[in-house]
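Sample intake sheet
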Amino acid sequence: MNFKYYIVFTLFLLQFNLFAQKDSIKSKETSQLQIPRVKYNPLSPSKAAFYSALFPGAGQIYNNRYWWQLPLIYGGMATSIYFFIDSSNEYDRFRTAFRRRKAGLTDEFTVNGVEIISEAGLESAQRQLRQNRDLSLLSTLLIYVLQIVEASVTAHLLQFDDTDDLTIRPTAIPPNRYSVDNSPKIGLTLKYSF
């Protein structure tokens, strides 16, 4: 029995509109601090992604979020490219030594007729350096793709409306008194507007 009263009381309370708190004091200072609404531009995310695809970091410049993101992008890409070039040069060095040793010639890892690194060591070094080179290239491509995605997502989020002009208006809407099977129905909706 008490449960029915609880439901009726809850439905009664839901009939009232709920609004965000309004400021009762309006001054010149508060009106000057208001951030102007940004007009929604549906092409902004695609422009940012396009600019980033053409030139890494250009999408971040387009979004005006470049002061801390550009050093990360260029630092990450430069580090990956450095390790790619270093691993590639070392791989070529060990591969040349391996080929010269197989041809019966002396290589840079043979000093006074003594092999400093064995053939198995040269092969192992080539495998490891090739793997490092490929991972460096993969990380460079990953940073490139991530900066494109980041520019697009940031452009989307910059247009998000975060003003205090949000309202929630729960209302109980009485449906048809009886449904097809003659059982009573009760409905509840929640309306919100931006």
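Comment: Residues 42-160 form one domain. The first strand starts at residue 18 and ends at 19.
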